[in-house]
């Protein structure tokens, strides 16, 4: 019995350091709890990067206490970092921390076409109704051009805008990519508009210089493109934040509003 007791004590002495190694490591690190909304990658000093490929993800990094670390983000292609929350804040691509206790950080990425990440000029997007839309250019303060438009008799087509308002012109290309045919004017009149910071949605409200897309009533065969202008009367207070909006059909057959930059 004496020999067995001595062997047990020796085994305990030898095994204890190895058994406790993980516990000691955990004791010497701090949990940094990460919440991600959207698609992108987060890298933390001294740790493997974490990539979220779903609508939302959670992950825990283990970091050394009191050691300065840097979190860096890389949105997926087309996506955009909008904001940090929790222990980090702002919208910079990196955040520096020195942790003394458990911390929580949230980061949000928004997809292309989001209100906070509108499609840039020149990007063609498949829209609802079988159209591809591309915004070529925009003139947000277009009073002279719009007021110079005349009808077939030479009379002005548009009065000067009222106080606090102005005209905006958007030049777009519409390509029909579905089977059969469809009306350009019907799509422009019903599906497209602009919106600014006040969240007032503006539909067509003036006659633009040629080519006026809202007057192109002929059906368009698949593959044909129409390029021209659409005109809006907007509040001047919305001019600096104005974006074009339209709708797409999601994979689960829901309508979704998407946005296009006008600058």
Question: Could you please describe the fold and organization of this structure?
Answer:
It contains three helices and 18 strands. With 263 residues, the protein is mainly beta. The chain is elongated and about 85 Å long. It has two domains: 27-110, Immunoglobulin-like (Sandwich); 124-261, Sandwich (Immunoglobulin-like). The strands form five sheets. Strands 4-1-8-6 form a four-stranded mixed beta sheet, with no helix packed on it. Strands 3-2-5-7 form a four-stranded antiparallel beta sheet, with no helix packed on it. Strands 9-10-11-16 form a four-stranded antiparallel beta sheet, with no helix packed on it. 24% of the residues are buried. The chain has helices spanning 2-27, 143-147, 184-191, and strands at residues 30-37, 40-44, 50-52, 56-63, 68-75, 80-86, 94-98, 103-110, 124-126, 131-139, 165-176, 181-183, 193-195, 201-202, 219-221, 225-235, 243-249, 255-261.
Q: How many strands, which pairing sense, and closed or not: the largest β-sheet?
A: 4 strands, mixed
Strand order, sheet with most strands:
4-1-8-6
Overall pLDDT level: 90
Proper CATH architecture of the largest domain:
Sandwich
**How much strand?**
35-45%
Structural class: mainly beta
The end-to-end span amounts to 87 Å
Overall, the morphology is elongated
The ordered string of helix (H) and strand (E) elements is: HEEEEEEEEEEHEEHEEEEEE
The percent of residues in helical segments reads 10-25%
Number of strands: 18
User: Which regions are unreliable across 5 or more consecutive residues at pLDDT < 50?
Assistant: 4-15, 18-25
Q: Any idea how many domains?
A: 2
Number of helices, counting only DSSP H or I runs of 4 residues or more: 3
CATH fold annotation of the largest domain: Immunoglobulin-like
Radius of gyration, rounded? 29 Å
